[in-house]
Specification:
alpha+beta; 4 helices; 4-stranded antiparallel sheet; 8 strands; 2 domains
Length: about 230
């Protein structure tokens, strides 16, 4: 858990203890910042392996699947946040009706301009990415369909706040100590403490645990998608 004043076993209390400081020397908000930086580092690394690793934070209470309206004669669609306001960082799959759209690379379209590629409106069969969370469909639709597009995505993790208590990182328990060490290292680095080099070594050890955790998993591993705590009933 992030904070536990009853037994001092929260990430917050353990980080201060490891760095050998107290609450007057290092604010809770700074530990929150360190933990969220570490979340970003882990998830960015996981996303870089997305062809093999479908990473999601188990603190999210909805699956990383969304729908949006299919609009007549509209080619471009952007997906900035999910239904709970979490930032979408990458689209991994797009479906329209019973068709799984084929992702293409616009650089492979050489014989015609993009404006003329599958330019007659019809039933979309392909898409390319304008950005990680913006797509263009080919051809554009010749009908309006409510919730006609289903999209799958990667999103930002569930970040900590200073008011969190029982919340834990939405990752395997074997990686939780890394948040303690990362926060303690940031404290020591900022304050110029003599234990900074030792903590740097510990932080690297914990990062190698992340690398090892991700390395042993494959796309077919059910443990790959960390969704045990999802409340969504779909």
């Amino acid at each position: 858990m992030f904070s536990s004043t009853s037994d001092n076993l929260g990430i917050l209390q353990r980080a201060r203890k490891l760095a050998r400081v107290d609450s007057t020397q290092w604010a809770t908000a700074d530990v929150v910042g360190s933990c969220n930086d570490y979340l970003d580092k882990i998830f960015n690394y996981g996303f870089s392996l997305h062809k093999k690793f479908n990473l999601d934070d188990s603190n999210h209470t909805k699956l990383p699947i969304g729908t949006t309206d299919l609009v007549l004669d509209q080619s471009y669609y952007s997906f900035l946040t999910d239904e709970q306001g979490n930032r979408i960082v990458n689209i991994t799959r797009v479906e329209i009706g019973d068709i799984n759209l084929t992702q293409i690379d616009e650089r492979d379209i050489n014989d015609v301009t993009l404006a003329n590629y599958l330019s007659v409106a019809g039933k979309p069969i392909e898409y390319d990415k304008v950005a990680d969370n913006i797509i263009r469909i080919y051809p554009k639709s010749d009908v309006n369909t409510t919730a006609g597009i289903t999209y799958y995505f990667q999103r930002a993790p569930s970040y900590f706040t200073a008011s969190d208590t029982t919340k834990e990182p939405g990752l395997p328990a074997s990686l939780h100590r890394g948040f303690v060490v990362k926060a303690a290292y940031d404290i020591a680095l900022a304050l110029g403490l003599p234990n900074v080099n030792i903590l740097a070594l510990e932080a690297e050890k914990e990062w190698q645990e992340v690398v090892k955790e991700f390395k042993v998993r494959t796309a077919g591993d059910k443990a790959l998608i960390l969704e045990a705590d999802y409340l969504d009933s779909r």
